[in-house]
Amino acid sequence: MASFVPVSSLTRRHLIFPLCLVLFEFATYIAHDMIQPGMLLVTSEFKVGPEWVSASLTAYLVGGIVLQWLLGPLSDKFGRRPVMLAGVAFFMLTCFATHWVQSIEQFILLRFLQGTSLCFIGAVGYAAIQEAFDESLSVKMMALMANVALIAPLAGPLAGAAFLSFSDWRTMFWLFGAVSAIALLGLWRTMPETAGDSATSLALKSLARGYGSLLKDRQVMGGSAAIGLVTIPCLAWVALSPVILIHDEGLTRLDYALLQLPVFVAMIAGNLVLSRLAGRMPIEQPLRMAAWPILIGLALAALSTGINAHSYLWLTAGLSLYGFGTGLVNAGLYRLTLFSSEAGKGSVAAILGMISILVFALGIELAKGAYFHGGSFWFSLVNLGSGLLWFWLVRGFLRERKRRATRVSLE
Q1: Residue 92's pLDDT band (boundaries 50, 70, 90)?
Q2: What's CA 59's distance to the chain center, in Å?
């Protein structure tokens, strides 16, 4: 196909594509966040314990790993558009199918299948955004898209609690499917084709060689792991806060939903600041600025729960400060990692997605084990450890980026 020229200024048509993509992303997130207040109802209906609450998110994230290795190269060869449209349609159908589950195992299986939607967003959708817009505009777009996506964990618990007051959890999945159907129509009408090279090989040996090369690339691996690590505290909170606040602290579903607000409002504020800074300073600078709120917030959460295991308000405050820092990080770090290799962007996005989601899943399970064996303090220590590892990896990532830039300039 002809080379696609990245857009440097927005028109209404250019804007509709990312809006439809983020609507699909919103549907995939709301499919988890709205059901969270009702997960104890799900476990109660199927007569299983509260430990299955976080299994829903873990299965969803594992689903987000299994297809990325194929979808990235597939979209490099045949184009981003047909692969993306197929993914949206599949998610829509699995949401509708959830209405008929008869056991917790069937429910978790469909959560796993729905989680494959993350493969399409990460390996195909985000890569298309980065290719469709230039650096400054793509960082702004990703930051603003993240804000729309954050409406899901922000409004999801409140909307879920309200929805469950007049309907049941099964009906929710018809709503999720309907939202994804609207996104499917919008993407079909407006998504541009930014890739497609028939010479790209899909042979297993060729794919293995390409991914092997990416696995040896310190920048790709370091950036991917860092994205995963900095997101663990947020996802661990999403996964376990129903247990922490409702089951163990005895709060109502409404109280639980309200305590999600400061964390995700702070993340939105961080994304808004990043979108303002994009193009006004080097893309690396917000990563350095974010280290302070991330590490101080996670340390505050660990210290407060160490003093009093039931200080959930201080835990929320620490995670809110961390959330602001996280909002400053992800869009820029994603861009830097994606373009740190000369390989096809679908393949780089796929390995980035697989590594980061694997880190998500392992981190959530570690936080889950820590909480059920040691309470809020150990939960917070896992989060703090994730933040410290992120800081170490980002420092190395930026040093290596500077070294490579210096070597190129000398050549």
Answers
A1: very high
A2: 14
